[in-house]
Amino acid sequence: MSHKISQRFTVLMEEIDSIEAAKTRTSGHFGDGWTIDSNAFLAWRVKAKNIIVQVCGEESQHFIAFTQAEKLSGLDDSHHGSLKRTRAVFSAAKDDFEGGYLTSIKSLVQAEVFDSELQQAGELLSNGYHVAAAVIAGVVLETGLRELCDRNGIAYGKLDKMNADLAKNGTYNKLQQKRITALADIRNSAAHGKPEEFSANDVKTMINEVEQFLAHHLDQ
Asked: Is the pLDDT of residue 219 over 70?
């Protein structure tokens, strides 16, 4: 998935460079300037913002700076000026992604969230609430599978489908697929109010296995 995103950044950089190269000199009330294909530039901005949101998020400095850069600041501003500003921001996002900085930050934040949720599950289990603990651990597992799907370009679906697709893709082997299926069964029983179908020890094992699975497959 990282390779596909890197390719997308490269393609869009080439596209904006082509739009820049096709500019024409114009004269107006505010002096000479450059005119670009505004429709092509608009289409590029939509695609550029989409990849920045996917990689950086809407709250990131990259996305905020891009949306500010694309605005025309006054009558003497131009689409060409906006192009130069947005290209600079896009180039910075591309460099940060390819340098590994963006994925590292995302992984660190995600790891903290997962650790917090699994710690909560462990505390519930130790206080006798093994059903609630199983539900939380199941949510963490499913969220982890969604992240793996993102990284591998696989569409979201029900947990069983994502599990099968990830195994088929070679993200992990058939044995791991079977273990995830077993963990999902515990989660499903807990969510449907069937505590007789699993024990507190099963949930303890579940929490440990989910933690190990995430550490092995997401901490990369």
From this structure: no
